[in-house]
Structure formats: C-alpha cells, structure tokens
C-alpha cells in the first residue's frame, strides 16, 4: 500500500476501439466496455480515498470520428446516468462536468445536467467528466470571459494572476490533478487539461482502458510516489 494518495487523479481513457477490434467487436462495443471500466475505477477511487477523478470522456477533436461512433458516445452518458444515478446518490458521489455542453445533443445535455443537479450536495468522491472538452478551448473560453469582465469593469487588469485565471477555467473549483494517467500506449496529452497538468506526474500504460482496474490504478499511484521519494 502507498503512504499517501493523490487528491485528484485524471485519466485519458484510451484504447477502447482497439480493445473491441482485438476481440472481433465494434469500436462502440469497446466504448461500452470502457464505461464498465469507468465504474470499476470510480469504485476503486472510493476504496482508496481519492477525492477527485477527472475522466476524458469526449474531446473536442472526437467530433471528427464516424457519425455512428459520435452518436454512440453522445448516447452513453444518457444510458450511464439513467442507470447509475441512484447508486451515485447512495455512494455520495458528486458529478461535475468540464467542457462545452452547449453544443451537444439535448438528451445528452439533459442527462448530464440532471446528474450534476441531483448530486450537487453530495460530499464524497467528485467524478468530473470532461465532455466536449479541449485544453486549448478551455484556456480560450477563460480568456474570453476574463476580457469581458475587464471590458465591463468587473475586473482590473492588475488583479489578473494564476489563481484568478483558474476560476475561469472549466475545472474552476477543483485543485490540479497530481497525476495524469493515459491508457492505450500513446504518450501524448492530446489537448487534455493543458493548464491544469503543468505540475502533474504523467503515467502511461499500454493497457487498453477496458482492461484497466484497481490494481493498475494503485500501481500508477505507487510508481509516481516511488519516483517522488527517489527525487526527494
Ligand atoms: C478513446 O478510445 C476513448 C474515447 C474517445 C471515449 C471514452 C469514453 C468512455 C470510456 C465512455 C464515456 C461514457 C460516459 C458515460 C461519459 P479510442 O476510441 O480512441 O480507442 P483507440 O485508440 O483504440 O481507437
């Protein structure tokens, strides 16, 4: 067991499509298996007392995928939250979303906002779903809001600093993740949380996300802790 657990873990859930293909299944079936892995990771975070889990569920670049796959990825939150909300309430889980949900289908937005609304007073694990999220877009939308506040005299140029800027990001109330895990073998950040991971440990594993489990999460955290111990 590790002596200290990060407060905030972020995961790029990559490899669903390849997981499906390797089994003669469709990419969408891979995504569905990814949802089941998401549930396992949520349970694991509660077990090991992680406070915040941010999951990259749909990037602003994912719109360029085949229409049927995009439609399925838009439908998954509807299915997921409809089924899982009572369990989330029982386990005191709070759902947050980071990203631009104004341009997603109504049914998806409704399922997500309902989940946020119902769980807003829960005080346990925060599951922050990055949906229609892009790191550059996050920074740009923050700059735009800030410029508007300056223009309307709600904000003085001299008062702009890192802490204030963070309040304009999609992740506002959340501390930065201490570790960013990417499954699926690629070693890239892929426009995820660009500002927020500036000090995070980066952990890459070849395991496809549908195979990711509690032991692997603990290994990622443990290995990051070991590296810190060596560096100290
Ligand atoms: C990347 O794998 C994964 C995604 C684009 C989607 C991840 C989404 C989920 C696990 C489910 C989201 C569900 C909810 C309820 C929010 P990939 O398709 O790029 O895999 P590949 O690299 O093998 O092609």
TrEMBL record:
This is Isoprenyl transferase. Gene3D superfamilies: Decaprenyl diphosphate synthase-like. Its cofactor is Mg(2+). Binds 2 magnesium ions per subunit. Belongs to the UPP synthase family. It is an enzyme of class 2 (transferase). Catalyzes the condensation of isopentenyl diphosphate (IPP) with allylic pyrophosphates generating different type of terpenoids. Transmembrane segments: none annotated. GO terms for biological process: polyprenol biosynthetic process. SUPFAM superfamilies: Undecaprenyl diphosphate synthase. Its EC number is 2.5.1.-. GO terms for molecular function: ditrans,polycis-polyprenyl diphosphate synthase [(2E,6E)-farnesyl diphosphate specific] activity; magnesium ion binding. Mg(2+) binds at residues 14, 201. It holds the Pfam family Prenyltransf. Keywords: Magnesium, Metal-binding, Transferase. The active site is at 14, 62 (proton acceptor). Substrate binds at residues 15-19, 27, 31, 59-61, 63, 65, 182, 188-190. Homodimer. HAMAP family: ISPT. InterPro entries: UPP_synth-like, UPP_synth-like_CS, UPP_synth-like_sf.
